[in-house]
Amino acid sequence: MRWSAILLVLVVSCLSGLARAAETSTTPAVAQPDSSPTTRPANKFPTPAELMAKIQAAQKKDGDDDDLPKVAYFDLSGGVTEKPADFNFFAADQTSLTLRDLIDRLEKARQDDDVKAVLVRLEEGSLNLSQAMELRDELSALRKTGKRIFTYADSYDTTSYIAASSASDICMLEGGDIMVPGVGFETMFAKGLLDKVGVKADFVQIGEYKGADEEFTRTGASDELKGELNKLADSLYGQIVATISASRKLPPETVKSLVDDSLITGEDAKSSGLVDHLVDAGGMRDLMGDKLGSKIELVADYGQDQKDAVDLSSPFAFFAMLAHKPAESTRPGIAVVYAEGVIVDGPSGSGLFNDSGNIGSDTMREALRGAEKDDKIKAVVIRIDSPGGSALASEAMWQAARRVAKTKPVIISVGSMAASGGYYLASAGDYIFADPTAIVGSIGVVGGKFVYTDLFNKLGLNTESFVRGRNADLFSSSTEWDDRQRAQVTSWMKKTYDQFTQRVMTTRHGKIADIDAVARGRIFSADQAKDRGIVDRIGGIQETIAYAADKVSLKPGDYDVRVFPPARTLSDLLNGAAGDDDSSTRFSSRMMPSEAMGLLGMLSPSTRHALGTELTELMLLQKMPVILASPVVFVVR
Q1: Which of 74, 208, 480, 490 shows its CA 20 to 30 Å from the CA of 603?
Q2: Closest CA to 128 of 526, 637, 601
Q3: How far is it, in rounded angstroms, from Cα 17 to Cα 23?
Q4: How do beta strands 377-386 and 333-340 pair?
């Protein structure tokens, strides 16, 4: 790989340059043992070795505070991800804070007698609703041990406030506010626009509640889709009100009134009992010291793995770090496989306009095969957050998961969503957990294509087709399906739907009483899904892992949790272990012009995610006119 050789040369040159700069700089004369006097400026830039020495000295000095009460600090302002980064520069490097890592570290703080309190820094948009619920539950468990829980944000939105609601001390900037506007789903219908520009949406859906084609084929929601969305809104709204009410010990009607006010100023939030302290970020240390009765030691890296210091002034030490591979564990393990994003055929890749990525069937099958073949892995947990996608990829992953299930338990954890193709994959599990606010179901099929003939005519464009075979123009964007073709596509879709429901009943037989009553495109909140046998238990990722471990008689502390596939490192790339990475960028944001990416950067992460999901599903339709997708993209603010 030519670029890896270039990278090595650049690194060596950089390190050599630092060394030469350190040797040739001039300062006031200082006698050196067995060497001629040299001079160096008093304000020289320290070498990496000197910088490391200063850090170690500072750490040693900080050790004088060992007798002070420890406060474990967790900064979530940069956001929390579901899955670890696919690529880490170094083997031991962790570039993103995952939900599971966060909860692991909080559990460690819960059991640590030296930790007297926890401080969590939150920010609007840093969590989705399911993550917020899991964090809220963990903070609630921690508080029950008698430790104080402090949360801080300049302002809170729905998800960050849900996470903070179980804290003993909710803190906010005096000029900040709480924005909890309730729950609302907004869908856009483009048929009127398509009619004006001359584009025909030629779609078929199986399941009258599916609704995934309505944004292109209708000017407003059908009664069936309205009913599904209203039912879902009622459930999520009720959960938000109940959570805040229970956490803050406020009557539900009071919480509803506050939600109806939507924007709550700092003073009103404090007087109504939603926050406990109005303070700026700089005053948090003094506030915590007052509440704990003494000065405190704030531990910013609490629970993080300690990494060995590396002498960066030595190229040999640097390259040794690059080549370093973590020692393989000899303990039994639980594998965690993440399925996050739109389901696509082939390898996983970067998400369109966002970094959450897509679920590639090839990548998932490779991960599941790896977990199956590893004798130290005793059970597999699949964490799903997906609105669906390719029907073929969903089937391929279902088969791979069931193959693993022949020899090892496969347990499912649903995060924000397992809809359509996402639930197709979930149904491959032996047992299904779902976060309290998860959206589940949408068992149905949609398919179609766009016909641009009228638009082309308006633009003065003309297309002519020369075909052999009755279906050679099946995917043509110039002609609508004739009756025979529409019947064929409908037949394919019905077969896909029948296969979908059969796959579900393979594992849910005896749990779902009537598949027809829960299929046909219906969507459910987690509690509704549990009542209907679509999921087995309400719970988060940690509960799922604990359940999987118990299924194979592993006690807490006696096993490792390992992510499959493991993150690639620079060492992997330099040794050619990553393969042809270009193949995973088929839906990547890197395909977009820089000007477009600049404009998209102005959108919120949740809006970019929703837009990317919609466009990725449209791209799937260009390949195959039948997909398994949820009716709408859900965003909670």
Answers
A1: 74
A2: 637
A3: 10
A4: parallel
